[in-house]
Amino acid sequence: MKPFIKAMIVGLLILVLSGCSSETTSTESSSTIGSGNTAATDALVVTAKNFQFDQAEFHVKANKALKVTLKVPEGMHGLSIPDLNVSMMSAGVMTVDASKPGTYDMMCSVPCGEGHLIMKSKLVVE
Ligand SMILES: [Cu+2]
């Protein structure tokens, strides 16, 4: 009886684990929002959470008056893009001159906790 129960538990575990991993792969493919979403947009919308931005790479079209929106649904975060003079200490909207194509560093500007130093993304101005 005991080995049978053991086998059932192992079987269940395998079912649960494989269920989990297939879920992970499906969320992974859909959360390729990260670097997969490379279509350049007219405005920059960034969501900051503990402890990452919603995309590893943001793509925008070169724009003399680029609207930058920062959303902070979780924690305390800011957004800094030094080369574009973006400095936001909390959620908000600002307009910046992003007329020069290039790749810009983005980082969190608020010491938000243990993950602060890894809160980095890239902004690609096309
Ligand atoms: Cu931070």
In summary, what is this structure?
By secondary structure, the chain is α/β, with parallel strands linked by helices.
The tally of structural domains comes to 2
Oligomer: single chain
Q: Provide the CATH architecture of the largest domain.
A: Sandwich
CATH class category name of the largest domain: Mainly Beta
Strands in their spatial order, largest beta sheet: 2-1-4-7
* Helix and strand pattern: HHEEEEEEEEE
Structure commentary:
The protein has helices at 2-30, 33-36, and strands at residues 44-49, 52-53, 57-60, 63-71, 79-81, 86-88, 92-98, 102-107, 120-125. By secondary structure, the chain is an alpha/beta fold. The protein has two domains: 1-30; 35-125, Immunoglobulin-like, CATH 2.60.40.420. The chain has a four-stranded mixed beta sheet, with no helix packed on it. Strand 1 and strand 2 (52-53) form a beta hairpin. It is elongated. The relative contact order is 0.18. Mean pLDDT is 83; it is low at 20-34. Residues 77, 108, 110-112, 116, 119 line the site of copper (II) ion (CU). Copper (II) ion is lined by residues 77, 108, 110-112, 116, 119.
